[in-house]
Specification:
Blueprint: H1 6-23, H2 30-36, H3 43-48, H4 51-73, H5 80-94, H6 98-111, H7 126-136, H8 142-161, H9 177-188
Helix pairs in contact: 1-2, 1-4, 4-5, 4-6, 5-9, 6-8, 7-8, 8-9
Length: about 200
C-alpha cells in the first residue's frame, strides 16, 4: 500500500539524494533539501520527523532492493557461504561507483553506532538473515548466532562504509570481495564456544 503523501516524500528523497551526492551529507542542511524539492521549510520534519528519519528513508529506498533481491534468490536452506556472499557482494558492487561509496558511507555512519538503522524496518532484514544463519549453523546457540551476525555486519560496514572518513569518494583500497567473504565466513563458522 503506498503512502498518501508518496509524491511529496519522493520529491524530498530525490532532492536529498542529489544534494548528499553532490556535497556530502554533513554539508547539506534540511533547509536546502526543502528548497531543492520546492517545498516549505518544515517539509522534511513533517514527512520524516528528523534528519535521521530522512537519511534512513533514503537509504532504504536506494539500497533495500539490492539485498532483498539477493536474499529472495536464496531459496530453501542456503548454506552459510551463499548467505555471506549475498550480504557482501552488493557492497562490493556499490563501492565501484562514487555515488555507491557515498551511500555506503552514509549507511555505515547511520547504522554502526546502534547496530541497526533507526526509524525503518531493517534494510538487511537482520532477523531473517540471523534466522537463516542459525538454521545453517545448528551447532551454535541463538546468542552466539546473534553476536556473530552483529560482528559480521559491523566488519562489512567498516570495510565498505569507511564511517570515519570525511568524504568517501576515493575509489582506492577496498579488499577483494573474495577476501571479505572468506573472512566473514570463517568468523561465522568458527567452532562453537562451550562453557
Amino acid at each position: 500500500m503506498s503512502h498518501p503523501d508518496a509524491p511529496t516524500r519522493e520529491r524530498l528523497l530525490t532532492a536529498a539524494k542529489q544534494l548528499f551526492l553532490e556535497k556530502g551529507a554533513d554539508q547539506v542542511s534540511l533547509r536546502s533539501v526543502n528548497a531543492t524539492a520546492g517545498l516549505n521549510p518544515g517539509a522534511v520534519h513533517y514527512h520524516f520527523g528528523s534528519r535521521e528519519g530522512l537519511v534512513s528513508a533514503l537509504l532504504e529506498r536506494e539500497l533495500r532492493p539490492l539485498w532483498t533481491e539477493r536474499m529472495r534468490a536464496l531459496s530453501g536452506s542456503p548454506d552459510v557461504r551463499d548467505l555471506v556472499a549475498a550480504l557482501v557482494e552488493p557492497f562490493a558492487e556499490l563501492v565501484s561507483t562514487r555515488d555507491g561509496r557515498v551511500l555506503c558511507h552514509l549507511l555505515a555512519r547511520s547504522a554502526l553506532p546502534t547496530g541497526r538503522l533507526p526509524h525503518v524496518s531493517s534494510l538487511f532484514a537482520p532477523a531473517p538473515f540471523e534466522v537463516l544463519i542459525g538454521r545453517a549453523l545448528p551447532g551454535l546457540s541463538p546468542r552466539e548466532v546473534t553476536e556473530r551476525c552483529r560482528l559480521a555486519f559491523s566488519l562489512v560496514m567498516e570495510t565498505y562504509g569507511r564511517p570515519l572518513t570525511k568524504m568517501p569518494a576515493e575509489p582506492s583500497g577496498f579488499p577483494r570481495t573474495e577476501t571479505v567473504v572468506a573472512f566473514v565466513l570463517a568468523g561465522l563458522t568458527a567452532p562453537p564456544l562451550h562453557g
